[in-house]
Design a protein that fits this description.
Blueprint: E1 2-6, H1 10-22, E2 26-30, H2 33-42, E3 47-51, H3 59-68, E4 75-79, H4 84-92, E5 97-100, H5 105-118, E6 127-129, E7 132-135, E8 140-143, E9 146-148, H6 152-163, H7 171-179, H8 189-202, E10 210-213, E11 217-220
Parallel strand pairs: 1-2, 1-3, 3-4, 4-5
Antiparallel strand pairs: 6-7, 7-8, 8-9, 10-11
Helix pairs in contact: 2-3, 6-7, 6-8
């Protein structure tokens, strides 16, 4: 199995190369972001071990760029940052797993093997429905060339509907996933937010992507309306 390790701590990079080679992996190294991105673009790897804090280009940018280009190679991010938001950011830009330094080498190898077993199915980092695009990592929404401003709750409703494009989604499902599984307020709050969304993503553009399915819930058209 071919592995690319992008790590600017040269001692750690060489240690990973020796250890992974002993496990039967074929390992290539890059010590800065631009070299790592170049190698990832030019060669077919089975998995990438990607540090976040890199010279010239961060691991976040590398991962985001590869995903935007349709490269779904499994990526395990390494970072000295162990905050929950740092981990969330890594996963939001398209990484498959996240490991904080210092880490257990045994755990690293186990996670790499788990990623290899899963393979690399297409998992777009940016959700799209026609010309409607939502980036969960950057927290941005666009309709064509126009950027849209949504509240956090509007963003959550739209993201959930876009992840289930062309499916009918009930009010209860939306409440459980966007509000809270134990929300016991007025379920018609969903209807209110759907109305807000329509006025932002559809009405100004003459579209009808967000549809009401009477008695069942809502559906976001996969073609963007």
């Amino acid at each position: 199995m071919r592995v690319l390790v992008v790590e600017d701590e040269r001692g750690l990079a060489r240690a990973l190369q020796r250890g992974l080679s002993a496990e039967g992996f074929s390992v290539e190294l890059a010590h800065d972001g631009l070299d790592g991105l170049h190698l990832a673009r030019e060669h077919a790897y089975d998995v990438i071990v990607l540090d976040i804090m890199l010279p010239s280009l961060s691991g976040y940018r590398i991962c985001q760029t590869l995903r935007a280009e349709g490269n779904w190679v499994p990526i395990l991010m390494l970072s000295a940052k162990d905050g929950e938001y740092d981990q969330a950011d890594g996963l939001d830009v398209g990484a498959d797993d996240y490991l904080t330094k210092p880490f257990s080498y045994v755990v690293l190898v186990a996670r790499l093997r788990a990623l290899l077993r899963r393979g690399a199915p297409a998992r777009p980092a940016v959700l799209s429905a026609g010309d409607l695009e939502l980036d969960p990592g950057a927290k941005t929404v666009r309709r064509g060339d126009t950027g849209l401003t949504l509240t956090p709750r509007e963003f959550g409703v739209l993201e959930y509907l876009m992840r289930r494009a062309d499916e009918v989604v009930s009010k209860r499902d939306i409440l459980e996933h966007v509000w809270d599984a134990h929300y016991d307020g007025d379920p018609n709050v969903v209807e209110v937010y759907v109305g807000y969304l329509r006025r932002k993503i559809d009405t100004p553009f003459g579209r009808a992507a967000l549809q009401t399915v009477r008695g069942a819930g809502y559906r976001l058209s996969g073609d963007g309306g």
